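Chapter review: from sequence to fold.
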Amino acid sequence: MENRLRTLRRTRGMTQQQLADTAEVSRQTVIAIEAGRFNPSVLLAFRLAKALGVTIEDIFIFEG
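The token string follows.
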């Protein structure tokens, strides 16, 4: 699954640490998601979307 997390985070002027703190995860989790090495749970996807003020569909691109 592809994602636009890095782009959306940078557009909002957030660091990886700021996003991690807001979403209550580690910075390493944000790094892994941005690199496409980790697909988050639905709960984490919602927390990331809320932290960025977007929908889950704005962040994650499902190609099934």
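Two observations follow directly from the output. The mean pLDDT is 96. The helical segments are 5-11, 16-23, 27-34, 42-52, 56-59.
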